Amino acid sequence: MRLVLVAVLAAVLAACGPRAAPSSVAPPDKVVQVNVTGQPVDLAAVLVPGHVTVVDFWATWCAGCAVVDEQLMAAIAAEPAVVVRKIDIGDGDTPVARQHKVGALPHVRIYDRAGNLRYVLAGNDALTAGDVAKSLAAEPR
Predict the structure, then answer these.
(1) What is the SS3 assignment for 50?
(2) What does pTM read for this prediction?
(3) Using an 8 Å Cβ cutoff, are 75 and 23 in contact?
(4) Which residues contact 128 (CB under 8 A, 6 or more apart)?
């Protein structure tokens, strides 16, 4: 009887044992504004490990930035491995612009999944940011 009770108890405990926990890690936000206008930013701290991170330096007065943003978002909307971190440089002569040597807008930097800077796109070249980011996301891990 005792042996049967031990066997039943062992079976019950085995059934209640560790199970694979559901993934509780939420995906990162697709787009995040990371600074107060003009304030410095630690770029390494805003990169998203395991994701292609597009760092978009922008300003409210920059019409080209709005065009780049629209095209970028359309290109990467369905690509979960690409995130955007936006940095508002303000009037252009601000601590963050000097810190990262951003002299002209639009200005986009694209980092691969490992956090390596792979592309710096300025002016009209920034219009290709979405396609460039998608191509990095398609690279084998």
Answers:
(1) coil
(2) 0.82
(3) no
(4) 121
**Distances from the Cα of 11 to the Cαs of 3, 5, 8, 20, 21, in angstroms?**
12, 10, 5, 18, 21
Do the Cβ atoms of 136 and 118 come closer than 8 Å?
A: yes
Q: Which two tokens stand for residue 20?
A: 């694979």
Cβ neighbours, 10 Å, residue 97: 21
Domain boundaries, the chain: 28-137
Q: Contact, 90 vs 37, CB < 8 A?
A: yes
Residue 48 · residue 103 · CB < 8 Å: no
Q: Say which CATH architecture domain 28-137 belongs to.
A: 3-Layer(aba) Sandwich (3.40)
- The tens-digit pLDDT sequence of the chain (141 residues) is 454 444 444 554 455 555 555 557 888 999 999 999 999 999 999 999 999 999 999 999 999 999 999 999 999 999 999 999 999 999 989 999 999 999 999 999 999 999 999 999 999 999 999 999 999 999 998
Say if residues 29 and 35 touch (Cβ distance below 8 Å): no
